[in-house]
Structures are given as structure tokens and as C-alpha cells.
Amino acid sequence: MKNIGLYLHIPFCKSKCPYCDFYSFSGKDTQKDEYTQVLKDRIVSSVSTLQCKGDTLYIGGGTPSVLGAKNLATLVNTCSPFLTGSAEITVECNPYGLDEDFFKILHDCGVNRLSFGLQSAIDNERRILGRLSNRNQVENAVKTTQKVGFKNVTLDVMLGIPEQTEKSLQETLDFCVSLGVPHISVYMLKLEENTHFYKNQSKYNFPDDDLTANLYLQMCETLENQGIMQYEISNFAKQGFESRHNLKYWHCEEYLGLGPSAHSFLDGKRFYYDRDFESFMNGNSPIGDGLGGDFTEYAMLNLRLVEGLNENKVLERFGHKIPKEIYEKSQVFIDNGYMLKNENGLAMTRKGFLMSNAILAEIL
Description:
Blueprint: E1 2-10, H1 29-47, E2 52-61, H2 69-79, E3 83-93, H3 100-108, E4 113-119, H4 123-128, H5 135-148, E5 153-159, H6 166-178, E6 183-188, H7 196-199, H8 209-225, E7 229-232, E8 235-237, H9 244-250, E9 255-258, E10 263-266, E11 269-272, H10 277-281, E12 287-291, H11 295-302, E13 309-310, H12 311-318, H13 324-335, E14 339-342, E15 345-348, H14 350-354, H15 356-363
Parallel strand pairs: 1-2, 1-9, 2-3, 3-4, 4-5, 5-6
Antiparallel strand pairs: 6-8, 7-8, 10-11, 11-12, 13-15, 14-15
């Protein structure tokens, strides 16, 4: 019996952040309860037919914490029979308005990893980003989770946001380190169409590309000096705290996603649910998205990782080693310090990660 990842999408948020392009809306309390029941039924009907177990469960959104602790516990308990005993179970949370009882309920039902959307520890930057909580509330929420017994907590930080400087980023990173969290995700802001930032970008003071690149390098150095090591373009962890669920994506492994906008990759096929709440509630089937997992896709995903593209793993999966032409196309990037070639295969350097999209397009 193979292991897969399970993903549940919770499409509710208290408010829409100006940078967010994920599928979400405010929703009524009755909708949240009804969605919990529909998703519970869908979990049983979808997962029970698979010859597999989930060794990771990730509940994302949206803002899953607005669903309430009892509804979240219901979903985790529904998934439990289909999970391995050592499964990593993650819930994304907004620290705004959460108390100790909320975290106790999650801890008691088996959740063992929490993800908080910090984005910035600077309250002025947080207000621009539409974050509802202030720095002190984030700190209190993290400390409460630690008091309850959570050892695996991750904070999300954003680079390239309005008004951000080297000094303000350093303050945010120092804040994360001071809380003792073992995992930090740091994402560069991308102006997605149909977001408030995209439509109103002239009204904001965004860092330019050069400053954003410097912020990225500053972030890498700061975190690694604290023993929080980079393992993917945007992710850093103390040893043993890497996100097992997200590693499934980057290793091109299988996962099942449930909920509006959720994507899946099973048996070599990709499919997804439409970004439509009513469609999912009415039981509509997922939409086919073609085949997945070929060498090009596998290479693209693995080159996001510090470990890079491994010769032996490529041979095991595809029956051949990394093609010669990939090495040939990579040579110019190796010569200029953007990539590394060693006995294991190919990998990006830190400088290469800043140019990864262009490099991947060139070599793949």
C-alpha cells in the first residue's frame, strides 16, 4: 500500500488580503458547518476507494482557523482512519482571535504542525498587507501553541512588500528567531492579476527588483546563521522539521486534494476542482488536467530544492540518468555561479534561485 499526501482546502477568510489570489470568501457560519459535513462525506467517499494511506494531511486555505476548532477536529478525525500512525498533520491559522482552547482541541485530535501567516512583524507593514492581528497577538498565539504542546510551528514571511527595507526585514526575521519556531517560509510577493495590489500598484511603495534580491540573500544568510537551513527556494527549517507535505509536491509524489480549487496528482494524472463553492457543494466531479510526472516536470520541481536533481533518483524513476543535453545547457549557468554540478547531479545555487524561472525555461 503506497502513501500519499492529503490536502483539504478551506475557502473561508474573515477578509481578503490585498495580495491574495487563492480561492476564498468570507462565508456565513451556516456555510462553514455545511461545508464541513460535505467535505467530511467527500473524504470518506474519495479516500476509502484508494489503495493507499495518507502520511501527510495539510488543511489550507483561505484561512482554515475561521472554520472553528470543532469543525477542524471533525475533519481531522474523519481523515484519521486513512492516515499512517506517524502522519504529519498541518493546519494553517490566522493568529487573530484564537485562544488556548482552540489550540488544545487541535492538539488533542492529532494535529502536530501549525502554520501562521505572519508576513511581517512590523505593524505598519502588516496593516498594508491587510493582516488583522498585531505583532503582540502573533507572539502570544505562538507562545500559546508551545504551551499547549506544539513543537512544530512555522511562520510565513513575505519579501518585496510595500515599505519593506533591509532593517524592517531584519526585525521580522529576528522576531521569528526569538520565538524559537523550527520552520520559516519566506515568499517573494508576486502581483497576481485580480488582486488589490495588482490593480492599485501605483499607490504603493514596492521595493525594486535589486532591493528584493538583496532582501532574499539577507534572509538566507540570517536564517542559516541561526541554524534554520534552506532546503527549498522559499523554505527553511531546523534539521528534521522540513515540511513533509510540501516535499511531496517538490519530489513530484502523489497527493489528493479536496475542496474548491484543490488540485490532485494520482496514478500519473492531474485533476482539480473548479474555483466554485456551490459546484463543490453540489457534488460536481473534479476536472481532468492531463498527465503529470514526466521528466521535465520532475526536474523542474526537484530543482526548486537545495538537494537538486539527483542522478540515482532519476535513474530509479525513469530508467535513465539526467540527459546529456541538460548538462550541456546548464554549463553556462554553472560557469557563472548559478548552478552546481557534482557527483549526485545538478542543483541551483542561492544566486541561481533568484533566477530560477529563467534558468528552468532555458535548460528544460
